[in-house]
């Protein structure tokens, strides 16, 4: 393997320039006061549900790795829509397909056939090596689909007694916010006030294969599936021990349990492989894709499985008006083309190694603040020491990075994810990591002085399900 110095030389010679898709004009500052960032934020606050707490920046235009606000200020995107724009914002090849298809046919519903979805179905199943695909729109819909599919398979093929099917998930998981999905969650904010939650669900520690086998031994005859993120994203980019995914595969096969991999965020090149399960050469029974499958321009999700599983669902038992629509199908094929043709998985592995190295250097420089840097490819989490950071939160650090022109978002108060578009350049990685270093050197001490100690973030509460404090 190349030394760090050799790798750095290779990356700089290969990935030095901008990746903003040459020929794309930079936006001009907005001349309309009604379109100012402040006015837009106020309008959303007044007329939209308060179900998000965004960083105070307004996206007006974007290309590649860069975003502009209505005033014309440029920012470097280090979140990439939670991996929805792995290919980069407004990729010209994806937009070309979007526009061409939009002029011909957009929606047919599944009451009829259309001339795009069958091609997408063939493309995606061949690419990932599964017999069939069930198309949906959002990632949460994909996970709900996988859960329904698992229960149906459990009753029809495994002969689980009626209404006794169990699905096992991991503590700290995040698979969306629909009612069925939050029933697997350990996030009290996502679950409190929405009960009763879906029954038939058990929890197990992520990364603990022995605990998983104990659950299988105790409840194996009624367990239809085990669903997991190969790397937990919302939990803070938590990576399981080496060999865990392979052990899960072996246990699921041994106890006749479907292994479902939620690759919505980890898939499509994000971790340096096409799927995160590829790191251990594991083939799940069911794979859920989303986010980058739509190329950052339209919601597309897909559930992949073989016929023995997929054909358990019959006509009328599941579906979506927009699932498999011709516009989404055309865009999804173009999105996969870009990932393959531009070798974005390989790029993620190489650039991720460089970004991780720089973040480790920052950790060495500020060991009292930075607790851990972890990740694979360009899927990286930086965990901070909440006590030394206090009374400042990572949300406030994210705001300060925004002020320095780099966009990130915290999770669980003490973790910041660094997940830029996979087309990012070496110079942009240097810019992003420098912004973090500057925030820790200049902004954080100033914040700590100005913010009273009694304004410290509220301590995380114990999980309602397992009684443990999972975050913070």
TrEMBL record:
Record field: compositional bias (Low complexity): 22-37
Pathway: Amino-acid biosynthesis; L-proline biosynthesis; L-glutamate 5-semialdehyde from L-ornithine: step 1/1
Enzyme class, broadest EC rank: transferase
Reactions accelerated catalytically: a 2-oxocarboxylate + L-ornithine = L-glutamate 5-semialdehyde + an L-alpha-amino acid
One annotated GO biological process: L-arginine catabolic process to proline via ornithine
EC number(s) given by UniProt: 2.6.1.13
Necessary cofactors: pyridoxal 5'-phosphate
GO molecular function, one term: identical protein binding
UniProt entry keywords in alphabetical sequence: Aminotransferase, Pyridoxal phosphate, Transferase
Recorded superkingdom: Eukaryota
Annotated family: Belongs to the class-III pyridoxal-phosphate-dependent aminotransferase family.
NCBIfam families named in the record: Orn_aminotrans (TIGR01885)
Name recorded for this polypeptide: Ornithine aminotransferase
